[in-house]
Amino acid sequence: MFEEIVLPITDPETEWVRGRALAKMSPRRDHARVQMRFASALDAWAGVRGEVGTEWRFRLAPPDEARRPLVPDVAFVWVARLRPYADDEIQAPTFAPDLAVEILSPSDDPRDVADKVDVYLRSGVELVVVVDPRGRTLVAHDRARSQTYEGSEIFAHPALPDFTLDLTAFFARALDRAT
Prior knowledge:
This protein is α+β, with helices and mostly antiparallel strands. It has a single domain (14-175), classed as tt1808, chain A (Alpha-Beta Complex), CATH 3.90.1570. It contains four helices and twelve strands, in the order ββαββββαβαβββββα. The strands form four sheets. A six-stranded mixed sheet has the order 3-6-7-8-9-10, with helices on both faces. A two-stranded antiparallel ribbon has the order 1-2. Helix 1 (29-46) packs across helix 4 (167-175). The longest helix has 18 residues, at 29-46.
């Protein structure tokens, strides 16, 4: 049995990335609005299918590695996967979410983001979505491939049946200032 890397609960949260404790950045406007809009769209779709959370700490264990905390900006877990667990067990689950969303901040190191995507996928996450507010793009990673969505494309993926996200409308609503 492998050990668990335990980090204290902090505000903002701390994750284990590339072999070190890494404090998440306190979100700024664009990050916060993209996070809220993505979570809202996902939650509207999820209904009774599962649970959506923001900044939900998961304790992930890739095969043959220590369990470590990662805190996706947005996460989704199917209700069928949650049923066997008690309320206290899903507060910081020892299983991977079905979807992990990471929203890029200007200071993010691409190596840290790549490491998180890798750990998520090796731990059992079906789909990892990396959203770039500055570039107004979204990259969907699953075990088979990565696909970039941009411009007026519609994001959809088999891991989220019937969920779609119109990128033009999504980024406009999240980032454009009201006049």
